[in-house]
Specification:
With about 120 residues, the chain is mostly beta strands. Helix content is about 0%, strand content about 55%. Strands 2, 4, 5, 6, 9, 10 and 11 form a seven-stranded mixed beta sheet that branches. Strands 1-3-8-7 form a four-stranded antiparallel beta sheet, with no helix packed on it. Strand 4 and strand 5 form a beta hairpin. The radius of gyration is 13 Å and the shape is globular. The N and C termini lie far apart (about 40 Å). The mean pLDDT is about 95.
C-alpha cells in the first residue's frame, strides 16, 4: 500500500521543539521533492518548507525561516522537519507531500499544538 505517514506532533510549550517525520511506504522517496504544509483551524493550507529529491535545495516560508529545518534520509525513506523556538501561531495540522512526475501523495497529517 502506497502511503505517507507523518508522526512526531504533540503539545509543546512556546519556545519548545518538535521533530516531525514523514515516512513513505510502498514507494521510494528518492525521486520525489517533499513539502511540509500546515493548516490551522479556519485557515487555508500553507506551505512551510520543501526539499528537493537529492536534498540539495531547500525552501522555507518567511514565518519559519531560522527556526525550522527540513532534512531527508533517503536510506530510511523518511523526511524530517525539525521545529525549534515554536510559537503559538505554529499551531496547526502538519502534512507532508511527495511530488514528482510519477505522482503526488499526501499524508494524513499530525497535530502540533503550541500552548502554555
Amino acid at each position: 500500500q502506497v502511503q505517507l505517514v507523518e508522526s512526531g506532533g504533540g503539545l509543546v510549550q512556546p519556545g519548545g521543539s518538535l521533530r516531525l517525520s514523514c515516512a513513505a511506504s510502498g514507494f521510494t522517496l528518492d525521486y520525489y521533492a517533499i513539502g511540509w504544509f500546515r493548516q490551522a483551524p479556519g485557515m487555508e493550507r500553507e506551505g512551510v518548507s520543501c526539499i528537493s529529491s537529492n536534498g540539495g535545495s531547500t525552501y522555507y516560508a518567511d514565518s519559519v525561516k531560522g527556526r525550522f529545518t527540513i532534512s531527508r534520509d533517503n536510506a530510511k525513506n523518511t523526511v524530517y522537519l525539525q521545529m525549534n523556538s515554536l510559537k503559538p501561531e505554529d499551531t496547526a495540522v502538519y502534512y507532508c507531500n511527495a511530488a514528482s512526475y510519477r505522482g503526488t501523495y499526501w499524508g494524513q497529517g499530525t497535530q502540533v499544538t503550541v500552548s502554555s
